[in-house]
């Protein structure tokens, strides 16, 4: 298909992919089929590691942004992703964590969706118990260290949200990674760009910026509007509270960062 051959491999594609976003809004089966297609691509070892990671980014973006994706679909996808993550942790003992980009991308997708849909997740019957069953503590403390490789803004929001709702406390891992940052600066370029390493974060369904056609997208589009600062406990340090909701809302996709900057300059 055109999506498979052209759109999916294009990391900095800004708006064409919204055709799929809109099509999926027309019928639940289309949305379920799209998510199933993406998840199969993530799991397929015959697919290139870059395509697998982009597919994970698409899953995270659809589950987070699409209003037509029910919370039951989110929990079902969480079950699939967490089971895959824990099996991956069990199966991989290699300390060469730089080659586990697909694993890190799936973890990041879960962190991203978790922060977007946390209120709905907790409002479900046994929602808190379900989130605990995903065992985020094991994920973030495993030797593959996903928090080190995931986008910093996503990590900060996940850490704040998980702490506020007592799902997981991940700041010790973040602090350890920060202490090791100086050491990582001495890693060779070849190591940091090894085959299988995590590619630059790209969430394809960042806020839609085309004014003339946004009427078709806005009714189906979820804006990130959680505020952690009001919920934070007083005894946490300033570093732990350093969360930028605006950056998280726009993710860090290079295409949208560039386009948004151009539009802002054009509007004066």
Q: Could you say which overall geometry the principal axes of the C-alpha atoms support?
A: globular
Note the main sheet.
none
Uncertain stretches: 188-193, 228-241, 252-259
Distance between the termini: 40 Å
What is the N-to-C order of secondary-structure elements (H for helix, E for strand)?
A: HHHHHHHHHHHHHHH
Rg, Cα atoms, Å = 18 Å
Query: How many distinct folded domains?
Result: 1
Q: In terms of structural class, how would the helical and strand content be classed? A: mainly alpha
Instruction: Please tally the β strands and state the result.
Output: 0
How would you state the average pLDDT, rounded? Answer: 82
Number of helices: 15
Proportion of strand residues = under 5%
The helix content is 55-70%
What does this structure look like?
With 268 residues, the chain is an all-alpha fold. The chain has one domain (2-177, 197-220). 59% of the residues lie in helices and 0% in strands. α5 packs antiparallel against α6 (101-123) and α6 (101-123) runs parallel beside α10 (152-164). This is RNA polymerase I-specific transcription initiation factor RRN3. One of its GO terms (biological process) is transcription initiation at RNA polymerase I promoter. InterPro entries: RNA_pol_I_trans_ini_fac_RRN3 (IPR007991). It comes from Parasteatoda tepidariorum (Common house spider).
Topology:
Blueprint: H1 2-7, H2 18-26, H3 28-43, H4 49-65, H5 71-91, H6 101-123, H7 127-133, H8 136-141, H9 146-149, H10 152-164, H11 171-179, H12 181-184, H13 189-192, H14 245-249, H15 254-266
